[in-house]
Amino acid sequence: MREILPSKLWLGNAADARDVEGMMKVGVEAVIDLAIEQLMPTLPRSLVYCRFPIMDGQQSSPSVLPAAIEMLVSLLNKGVSTLVCCSAGMSRSPAIVAGAVAIFQGGDPDTRLREVVMGHPHDVSPQLWQDIRCVCAEMRGKKHL
After folding, report:
1. Which of 6, 43, 95, 135 has the smallest C-beta neighbourhood within 10 Å, fewest atoms?
2. Cβ proximity of 88 and 15 under 8 Å
3. 145 within domain boundaries
4. Does residue 60 belong to any structural domain of this protein?
5. Contacts of 57 (CB under 8 A, 6+ apart)
């Protein structure tokens, strides 16, 4: 688990989502789980848990990506410390985090993705990233975000 925004946003993998002690230690209040192939972790009732089953390629449901990004942006806007995780923490979670940070703080999604993955192993699916870039462009057109 690594910190992306100080005390507010962490990026991780399925093992991090099961490490309740580690999450509590850094103050995580919510978990956004993107791992379609993993079992849901057993978490304390005090944590907010959101599951968005995302694939690395073409999405079966076009509403899932926007919902995941909107949820993360909403949690960040409300100051809720959040862990975003997928199976290995190398594709879906950095992509969703980068898209949400681009909406939350502004900036180009491609630049935000480079910042999120810099110095860390990553393997972001080109199809997934293209879809997230489109979602970000659409979200920027909405006034409520």
Report:
1. 6
2. no
3. no
4. yes
5. 125, 127, 128
pTM reported for the whole predicted model: 0.93
Question: Which residue do the tokens 């991780």 mark?
Answer: 12
Contact status, residue 136 vs residue 99, Cβ threshold 8 Å: yes
Q: What is the Cα gyration radius of the chain? A: 14
Asked if 92 contacts 64 with a C-beta cutoff of 8 angstroms, the reply is no
Q: What is the DSSP letter of 45?
A: T
How many C-beta neighbours within 10 Å does residue 113 have?
Answer: 22
41: helix, strand or coil: coil
Convert the pLDDT of each residue in 23-80 to its tens digit. Answer: 999 999 999 999 988 888 899 999 999 999 998 877 667 789 999 999 999 999 999 9
β-pair type (9-13, 2-5): antiparallel
Flag whether 88 is in a domain.
Answer: yes
Q: Where are the alpha helices (H) located in 43-108, listed in sequence order? A: 64-77, 92-105
Question: The domain containing residue 119 runs over which residues?
Answer: 2-140
For the chain, the domain total comes to 1
Among 40-44, 98-102, 127-131, name the most confident range: 98-102
